[in-house]
Design brief:
2 copies of one chain form a homodimer. Chain A folds into 2 domains: about 190 residues, Alanine racemase (TIM Barrel); about 130 residues, Lyase, Ornithine Decarboxylase, Chain A, domain 1 (Beta Barrel). The relative contact order of chain A is 0.16. In chain A, strand 8, helix 8 and strand 9 form a beta-alpha-beta unit. Chain A has about 400 residues and is an alpha/beta fold. Chain A has an 8-stranded parallel β-sheet with strand order 2-9-8-7-6-5-4-3. Chain A starts with 19 loop residues before the first strand and ends in a 5-residue tail after the last strand. Chains A and B meet through strand 10 and helix 10 of A and strand 10 and helix 10 of B. Chains A, B: It comes from Streptomyces minutiscleroticus. Chains A, B: Keywords: Lyase. Chains A, B: Belongs to the DSD1 family. Chains A, B: One of its GO terms (biological process) is D-serine catabolic process.
Chain lengths: ~400, ~400
Amino acid sequence: MTLTPPAAGVRTLADPDTPFAVVDVHKALRNIERLARRADRLGVALRPHVKTAKSLDVAALMHDGTHCPVTVSTLAEAEAFADGGYTDITYAVGIARHKMPRVTALLRRGVTLRVLLDSVEQAVFVADAARETGLAVPAQIEIDCDGHRGGLGPDAPDLVRAGRILHDAGCLDGVLTHAGESYFAHSPKERRLAAENERDTAVAAAGTLRAAGLPVRTVSVGSTPTAHAAEDLTGVTELRAGNYVFFDLVMAGLGVCGIDDLALSVVVTVIGHRPEYGWILTDGGWMAMSRDRGTAAQPRDQGYGLVTDLEGNVLPGLVMSAASQEHGTLTARDGADLPDLPIGTRLRILPNHACATAAQHRGYHVVDSAWPTGPAPVVQADWKRITGW
Amino acid sequence: MTLTPPAAGVRTLADPDTPFAVVDVHKALRNIERLARRADRLGVALRPHVKTAKSLDVAALMHDGTHCPVTVSTLAEAEAFADGGYTDITYAVGIARHKMPRVTALLRRGVTLRVLLDSVEQAVFVADAARETGLAVPAQIEIDCDGHRGGLGPDAPDLVRAGRILHDAGCLDGVLTHAGESYFAHSPKERRLAAENERDTAVAAAGTLRAAGLPVRTVSVGSTPTAHAAEDLTGVTELRAGNYVFFDLVMAGLGVCGIDDLALSVVVTVIGHRPEYGWILTDGGWMAMSRDRGTAAQPRDQGYGLVTDLEGNVLPGLVMSAASQEHGTLTARDGADLPDLPIGTRLRILPNHACATAAQHRGYHVVDSAWPTGPAPVVQADWKRITGW
């Protein structure tokens, strides 16, 4: 193909001040389509978790104008997605009583906002709020499938107790589980087993409730690793995943994706050299990348990130090995020579953990690698992130 | 003293939705006064680094209306402080050529914005910018005193070369060094030696330039640990430090401050219990605390933070041991019993690294522990943070 230089007025990745976050929309779309096809094949609805990108524009890539069901990690996301026309939202963090007025305000706006809980005490205050407001507050009971975080066991006595309290107030929607330990499942087989366990646990919990005469509508499972490994989701009604839109080095390290699938990166500028130490210094430190070092727990530690040129081609053997607030240090490894990257060179850093790196930025500059535009890709759009709680 | 309940309309830390960041202005002022007294005694000007709080309100605590000299880590901070009336600003990250238009725009506004560099190449483009714009761009040469990050050695040939290029363009202001390795100096003696080395290196670099006939105005040193350890700063003109305003568990672990000096915390709410694992779950995860685990490298690993009640009293033996995006896990250690903290209980978490935790928030709710107002301290003010680059 013939490359033409960008027209006057067109911005490229060489233009904005560094550091800044970039989304490659081509890779994001490819990742989205991959999981959408899987969900279709498995016969379950997909409810993307929007906590990674926190962007209405990224979420819009997932559907064709009919706002899809989404999962959120904060009420600020729920409110922003409601403002954007989304009406089917699950807030997948255990509910606190003081948050109920924000929940019921969204329900009054016609948004089906589902809340999550794993105790009788929470069920009581959710049911109370429903009675006080006259609004059915759809609630899901969190089920623990792998000892990762919150949740009740699938046959815990409190499951039926909480379910009955919710049901009596017209609030019981279903059960939800998250195979958080699958982020440490390093083989396809381990991830398949994690997906089977996630499904089995959720279906068993739904069975416990149904056996007690309590109707269960939603049986929700998901994590990015298990969503890409599940082979049979019989009994499950919906699949959640979030990180998969961008993917990251942790997911690549597990084998859930390849390095070439990573849709989020951070553009930095070389600001110095310390040849005596083998260091190249950049203006992108942990403020731009986050302090997340997720790959430190993997067989291949990728430091604070891998390095690509501005077009996205990986520079082999180069790693961002250290970070202070606004400084990054790049070093060679695996016997590679330190490349000649003069002061002023712009690079992209692929992050350990997309959720954490994205959170360091107020928005994204968007490029589309399906239409290569030369060494400095053209910025096609600027997308904002939702911040705060 | 007699406590009266807050008047109607008065907000307390029990009111805002969690998680949120809190600054105790009493502790911040105490920390500020402590270092101000030291700088006075040492006979040097203090140039606080505002990268920790990134707040005009916090900076205002440091002076009495006459805007003090400040250090910044981004041009966004420089621009915001210029908007706030500050006219003496050092941008202490190696300058990139593409940032020069923002630098010269600030100089044109009458702000003395000093830039930092450690190469002949940077000196050339700074001198070029000065000639092209007719503006003297005050520049400091970064000196490496401990192999921490950037900088030239105090007798590097490039020091005089860069100095001469700057001087010939009317830009040479001085030298700057930062004892970054002092964050790993665990005894008062090590920190005193680090401070002496920082001073000696900076003064030697100034001497190298002066011996070459190049005038040096500013000899700038500083880091929070060395600023609190220096006993003699002969030859130094100014002292920089930033973290000291809030302090954090890393600084307390080194012994630079006590736990009671920590002025920044994050308020979270208990949202669940897993008694079988000994876990209390909160709604404050790494999004609220950051992924910084600075104390992991110290003798006493404080997890993601220590836990206090809403008034600020440390709950002994309790630590935030794990974090996901919006979940925190509290566990007991040192043989302590897990306290009874019902769902809905609000707690404060003291962070590893104030710079990183503060960066996760858009602003601070401010309390004043000099005027105790009961178990839920009154919110005296809301202060905004500067974001982006």
